[in-house]
């Protein structure tokens, strides 16, 4: 028995939201609801219009016999600004300042509600680009990478600071961590990244940029392709940063006793 439109629309919406950047064919839905493809096409048009009007994202329709649609999560500027302003308010307390110009953020970056918002913001910056994988370095970048990977519908890969038997053979690079002005090593399992993979690098924080530069060097070692680099926050850094063209949601100045947090360059890079 065919499923009525109101029920189809609810179930189709959930199905798309749970599978971002994944093509779902007309035939699949027609069979799932025992309905005509023409009815499913009309359903998709309703969802497409609602997603667009409510700022949920883009429902990209693919014509033809094997056609269908795929959901691309995006965010509208006013919603993005509200999220960033809320983060600034939550972080702007002096007791979060840590030695070396760092900020205590772990309570926020372990909060699923915050991580969903951060993942959606970062994924929206790359909504119209082909990204095959998200890369981050252990440890605090991992929850962010997982959330971005969820919104882009791709895997995430974790760079380690030392080799683990469980990772098999690895490729390593040395890098200068600007935060500690030390030569450090990072490495990645040879099995985790294929040549030509289009990689988005994310992390929780950038100071000198050496960590991000190290991940970019790893991407080159694997003959993969860097699509972009985005961090949750960038701190102030006295000296020449080792990397440029990084997007940050927040700009943190924690060098003195009081804390100054401003929006990073995300809003201007993504919406202007
Ligand atoms: O821009 P840089 O000067 O290189 O510093 C940014 C690094 C340092 C810090 O990681 P750590 O606190 O060292 O490591 P973990 O994430 O494991 O806590 C932060 O999470 C970035 O990865």
Cα(first) to Cα(last) distance is 49 Å
In CATH, the architecture of the largest domain is 3-Layer(aba) Sandwich
CATH topology of the largest domain, anyone? Answer: Rossmann fold
Which hetero compounds are present in the coordinates?
Answer: the ligand O=P(O)(O)OC[C@H]1C[C@H](OP(=O)(O)OP(=O)(O)O)[C@H](O)[C@@H]1O
Determine the fraction of residues in helical runs and give it as a percent range: 25-40%
Task: Jot down its keywords.
36% helix, 272 residues, binds the ligand O=P(O)(O)OC[C@H]1C[C@H](OP(=O)(O)OP(=O)(O)O)[C@H](O)[C@@H]1O
Describe the model.
Helix 1 (5-17) packs across helix 3. The strands form four sheets. The chain has a six-stranded mixed β-sheet with strand order 7-6-10-11-12-13, with helices on both faces. The chain has a three-stranded antiparallel β-sheet with strand order 1-3-2. A two-stranded antiparallel sheet has the order 4-5. It is built from eight helices and 13 strands. The mean pLDDT is 94. Helix 6 (142-152) links the parallel strand 6 (133-137) and strand 7 (156-159). It has helices spanning 5-17, 26-33, 37-54, 77-91, 112-125, 142-152, 210-221, 266-271; strands at residues 24-25, 57-62, 68-73, 97-98, 102-103, 133-137, 156-159, 170-177, 182-189, 198-206, 225-235, 247-253, 260-263. With 272 residues, the protein is an alpha/beta fold. It is globular and about 65 Å long. The chain is 36% helix and 27% strand. The protein folds into two domains: 5-73, Arc Repressor Mutant, subunit A, CATH 1.10.10; 77-271, Rossmann fold (3-Layer(aba) Sandwich), CATH 3.40.50. Bound molecules: the ligand O=P(O)(O)OC[C@H]1C[C@H](OP(=O)(O)OP(=O)(O)O)[C@H](O)[C@@H]1O. The ligand O=P(O)(O)OC[C@H]1C[C@H](OP(=O)(O)OP(=O)(O)O)[C@H](O)[C@@H]1O is lined by residues 137-140, 177-179, 203-211.
